[in-house]
Design brief:
By secondary structure, this protein is an alpha+beta fold. The protein folds into 2 domains: about 1-30; about 35-130, Immunoglobulin-like (Sandwich), CATH 2.60.40.790. It contains 2 helices and 9 strands. Strands 1-2-7-6 form a 4-stranded antiparallel sheet, with no helix packed on it.
Length: about 160
């Protein structure tokens, strides 16, 4: 058997192992990703992000807003003692960091978060078009030294 065939067999075996066990090992290395819902409400205009974070101490949650990204991070600690022997382990534990892409600009400084019954609900007011493009004064054509007129993009109300 040539050296090339030997490495090809190892590579094939590694791929097959990844297919069989890759998901299990990947979770253990990287922590977990909490489930998240993102919704939008019209009155008042806001994004509503709900994250499933049962068993996580709210004091250890980090919430950051960077442009259109909401970053959630924290840790779910093990609740059992080292003397316990598990038959089944399904609850994911460890550190997590979740980046949620929002579909609109938000005013992060006005965000409100509530943690209740293992669910984190964050309400983020949306930036209105006028918040990003304030009216600017424009001189009326043909009138020298006239009063400024507010100008907004067409389609604004």
């Amino acid at each position: 058997m040539s050296e090339r065939d030997l490495f090809a067999n190892f590579e094939r075996m590694r791929r097959e192992m990844d297919q069989l066990f890759g998901d299990v090992f990947a979770r253990r290395r990287t922590g977990f990703l909490p489930a998240v819902d993102v919704a939008y409400a019209l009155d008042p205009p806001r994004a509503i992000v709900t994250a499933e974070l049962a068993g996580i101490d709210p004091a250890e949650l980090e919430i950051e807003i960077e442009g259109r990204k909401l970053l959630l991070s924290g840790c779910r600690h093990s609740s059992g003692s080292e003397s316990e022997v598990y038959q089944q382990v399904e609850i994911e534990r460890g550190h997590f960091r979740r980046v949620i892409e929002l579909g609109a600009e938000v005013r992060g400084q006005e965000a409100k978060a509530v943690y209740e019954d293992g669910m984190l609900r964050i309400e983020l007011p949306l930036v209105r078009e006028m918040d990003t493009h304030p009216p600017r004064p424009v001189r009326r054509p043909g009138v020298g030294g006239g009063d400024p007129v507010s100008f907004t993009k067409s389609g604004d109300s």
